[in-house]
Amino acid sequence: MNPNHELAATWTYHNSTKHSLESIRRNRHFLDWDNKPLPFKIYSSLDPLQLPINVPPLETPTLSAIRGTTKSESEQIPDLATLTSLLYLSAGITKRRTYPGGEVYFRAAANTGALYHIDVYVVCGELPDLAAGVYHFGPHDFSLRCLRQGDYRRVLVQAGGDEQHVNQAPATLICISTYWRNAWKYQARTYRHCFWDAGTLLANFLAAAAALKTHTQVVTGFVDAAVNQLLDLDTDREVALALLPIGYAVSAHAGAVASVSPLNLATVPLSDHEVDYPAIRAMHAASSLQTDEEVRTWRDGVLQLSESSPTGKLFPLTPLGDAELPAAPLEQVIRHRGSTRRFAREPISFAQLSTLLVRSTQGIQADFLTPFGTTLTEIYLLVNAVEGIPSGAYVFHRSQHVLGLLREGSFRKEAGYLGLGQELPADASVNIYCLANLPSILERFGNRGYRAAQLEGAIIGGKCYLAAYAQQLGATGLTFFDDDVTEFFSPHATGKSVMFLTAIGKPAKQQR
């Protein structure tokens, strides 16, 4: 049997990495600060190609960008300025903070533990001001480094099973994760974080692409070994997660697939020693695709997930109209975005929540979400303080744009407990959970459906981040007690699994 269809692997990994009160008490893991990994991948033998720093800022309103989609039927060749904007606004360093223990470099997108284990590569043909090649983006010095000279796009076309957007893209970005940079703190649960942290990065990327009117798509179906080999990754430690084709060329890439030989390029060691978590590698191997024919078959099926019918007390959303929307530009919001560390126990308006939900859930351009608007996740809310609706547990009916009240009551204490006993979810105005019906998803997509569901939940969470900051609210992503969240929203959520949690509220003013 194909490993992708041996579904016991997903359940073994998922159940073994669940958080519970008992698992937290049993875990003796501690943070070895002397062995904390470097948050960058640095090629020590390659010369940097400095990216331009005077690219015009994106003035598109954030709430328009996160909702927008861009398609093109005419040739669209990205230049270096476009690539620079996409790289900076998704994976670049936006601010630096100095602490007694050293300096922390904060990136454009939220990342678990601020450990920044997601790297981005560029594979392109000849562009107006960039030679064809395979490049690594180094946020630490805002540069590209060329791993391979020449046009290797055909490798991606074949690995992607002739996926249309990859086939017609002048350039493709590739997101990868280096496990240890996150597992240092989060151990085997890091494989979930691969897609959480890639997802928040992709939320920024998709918004920036829409603001730039650049054609793109999230492609998760590809032959893993071929893409990893092209990037010369050590697959025991780092793997490709998603392809992001950029632009549109009328003609497909012709010719034979280029020969890909090992490079064995030196990189700066991440830390004194690395700890291996076999469960991560096992889950990745079980969800990998092995041939381009397998990729085509994986992509061709259609998943039909029926949305539950609204029942009980319903609250139709009241989003702001286009003329009322805050005009906060995307680049400004991304530059100032952070993960809120303390919420004031103050209500947000129902219009703010409605706007956030509508703008964050319009659909994602991805190969596993076809036709556009398809979703693998369902959104539940624990409302602590939203003007105009009672506190309680809700489910969001996307197609009808209504919230269905599941249970009314004050649940701040429960919100804090569900968020691993932290104060943030208890203090937040609302906690937004993305849940997925994994049995149905795995039946259609195999183990790779686990990657897809985690990724979609994180992209939605990343969009919620941007929508919150665009409305001068705060947001933070949090971990959770898996089964307790499902139980809290049951019987409606029975059989579903939590993919992502975002807390939203008004930031508390810092006291000096």
So what's the overall shape?
A: globular
What is the average per-residue confidence, as pLDDT, rounded to a whole number?
94
Calculate the terminal CA-CA distance, rounded to whole Å.
61 Å
Number of strands: 18
Strand-pairing-aware structural class: alpha+beta
Uncertain segments: none
**Residue share in β-strands:** 15-25%
How much helicity do the residues have?
Answer: 25-40%
Number of helices: 18
Main sheet attributes: strand count, strand direction, barrel closure: 8 strands, antiparallel
Gyration radius, to the nearest Å?
22 Å
What does this structure look like?
The protein is about 30% helix and about 20% strand. With about 500 residues, the chain is of the alpha+beta class. Strands 9, 10, 12, 14, 15, 16, 17 and 18 form an eight-stranded antiparallel beta sheet that branches. Helix 4 packs across helix 8, helix 8 crosses helix 17 and helix 13 packs across helix 17. The longest helix has 23 residues.
Essential attributes:
512 residues; alpha+beta; six-stranded antiparallel β-sheet; 18 strands; 20% strand; globular
Give the SSE map.
Elements: H1 8-16, H2 21-26, E1 49-50, H3 62-65, H4 80-91, E2 93-99, E3 102-107, E4 118-124, E5 133-138, E6 143-149, H5 153-159, H6 164-167, E7 171-178, H7 180-186, H8 190-211, H9 224-230, E8 238-246, H10 278-286, H11 292-300, E9 314-316, H12 330-336, E10 343-344, E11 348-349, H13 350-360, E12 377-383, E13 386-387, E14 392-397, E15 402-408, H14 412-418, H15 423-427, E16 430-436, H16 438-445, H17 448-470, E17 474-478, H18 482-488, E18 497-507
Parallel strand pairs: 11-13
Antiparallel strand pairs: 1-6, 2-3, 4-5, 4-7, 5-6, 7-8, 9-15, 10-18, 12-14, 12-16, 14-15, 16-18, 17-18
